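Researcher: I need the complex structure. Ligand is zinc ion. Inputs:
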Amino acid sequence: MAIFVSGRKGRPRTRVVEFFIQVFVLSVIAYSLYVTTVEIASHSDNWLIIYRGQSVFGGLYLLSVVFLIPRLGIVYVSLTLGRETHNTPKYPLPDKDHLTEPYECVNLDGDLATCTKCSGAWKPPRSFHCSTCGVCRMHFHHHCPWVGNCVTNTRMKTFLSMLLIAPIAFSVSLIPIWHALARHMALALQSSQQDAWAAQFWWDWWGSWIFFGGPLGRWIFGMGLGFHILKAERRDDLPLVEQPNLRLFTICAFGLIFSFFALALALWTIADILRGLTTLDALQERYPNRPSRFVCFPRDNTRDVSRTATAILPGERIYDLGHWVNLRNIFDSEFNNTMGYVWPRLNPFVLDRMQNTIQSE
Ligand SMILES: [Zn+2]
Ligand SMILES: [Zn+2]
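Model: Output:
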């Protein structure tokens, strides 16, 4: 987490916030590992293996969480690294007179994009200057505040694996305790609603509908109060999962929120990739007033055709090459080689439309 390295570029304040997010996320992951391995499966409380006598199931459970949860932590940390180094390769600005294939440009003269914040360096097509990281990124999708880094094509595989491991790890962690937890939650809710103090403090107060995440938060916080009330009846000699426990409920609530968020983001990102869009493209599609983009057809000396450029129409996806090619462009390493710059291929249907427009003018 190279947070404080750069003082001259990026947004230092955002980075401090992101640093605390990273500490928080890693703490939740580490704590989940402790609860599942030590308190649920084995060791001090021995709930599943010794207390419940389920040694085979307990052993399998232990193996699964020991594999999944650290894996999630490693993938997460790897995404937070290299925010300074993972940069646009410093290719010199190509001479537009020497280009042979159609390419995206910034104006009708066929000029290539440059970045004013990076001393006028070439910004290859589909690159974006991330103001939080302070660098240009090739194949930029979005800046993710949860990992405090940009998500680009080269990181997409790792990013998606993190988003998919999180709900899997959470669901697996929950398997042995689900019944007990559901029972405890029902009991806690009941105790909370029947308690005079909880009614006065929370249920009868109008603010309970607003101040803790709206109507859903009203029930979650109310349930938390129930766990607090039940604490007075708890026996300390029983293991964690045997009786209603606010600690277990809280860590599961965090797990559920993270998993839900991760799964939704994964599906949303995959849908964009299939349509040949980066997250940024998909967001920009919703703003019709964004600056125009152009495609330039280079001069062709063999056919005596001069250079022409034309605007990309709203809704035209120039990098959409069909679902499977779009996916392969992200996941196939051959497309992510660092040996030299590979110009992105353009949608042949859009190119046809453009050439017809140019010829009819
Ligand atoms: Zn830049
Ligand atoms: Zn960034």
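Model: Summary of the prediction. Residues 119 and 268 are 34 Å apart (CA to CA).
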